[in-house]
Amino acid sequence: MEDDISRQVFEKTVGYKVTGDYLPLFDYLETNEPNLGFFDTELFPKRRDHVYVDVGAFTGDSLLSFAMAVRGSYKEIVAFEGDKGIYKSLCDMLTYARLPHVTTVNKLLFSGAEEKEWHSIRNNQNILFDSPNLYGKAEVIFSSREAVARGPVNFMTERVYTDTLDNSLQVSPTVLKINAMGADFDILKGGRKLIRQCQPMLCLEFGVRKQDVGRLIPLIKDINPNYRFYMRVKEIYGDFKTVLYAV
């Protein structure tokens, strides 16, 4: 960790994962420009030719935050979203936002090209279930209050094919944000060549899966030892996150 704040946030985040007590992290919450999400930070490089890659783009919230952070001046945006229903909502948003030079990709990224189980809900386009994933059944994650508010929910598990970041990206990113329901570690493994060659700024939610807490930073160091690491606590669209920046 490159500064005292990062070291303290790391310590408190590990403590939270052990005890379940998130309150100590609130002392480090940064809310200068909350609409900028991951990019509300002095660490974000100021330039007008960014190539931004968003893995786990959801409905485009972080994509819009990026566009605001650079005041609309960028070279290209590539947005990956694996869930079919959410992907449709992402495309609908972009129809109205009219952002130029944006490519969307409906693909699930992972550490390899393989067949996996995908857990989601069938009517995701209407309900916008925000936790489709490759690890746990949707009915365990889905809020019962949301089910009451939104109507009947049809859970599903289907067989899907994943691919890697190295296989799927033909641009050289300057900023790479990955926030993909716990698959971040595996997605990074599938992007070794890209990250080694391009060294984009990495923006990741830290500690989504407990088993990744002690191995995420060593993985990035192994891929590219030139990275420096920082941690900040952010409120991103109402969700409190410990964000790991590698620059």
From TrEMBL:
Keywords assigned by UniProt, alphabetized: Methyltransferase, Transferase
Domain Methyltransferase FkbM as annotated: residue spans: 54-219
Q: Entry's Pfam families?
A: Methyltransf_21 (PF05050)
Sorted alphabetically, which Gene3D superfamilies does this protein's record hold? Vaccinia Virus protein VP39
Do the record's keywords include Transferase? yes
> Under the GO molecular function aspect, what terms does this record hold?
methyltransferase activity
Biological process GO terms, please?
methylation
**What InterPro entries is this protein classified in?**
FkbM_mtfrase (IPR006342), SAM-dependent_MTases_sf (IPR029063)
Question: Which SUPFAM superfamilies has this protein been placed in?
Answer: S-adenosyl-L-methionine-dependent methyltransferases (SSF53335)
Tell me which NCBIfam families the record gives. Answer: fkbM_fam
**What is this protein called in UniProt?**
Methyltransferase, FkbM family
Q: Which organism is it from?
A: Schwartzia succinivorans DSM 10502
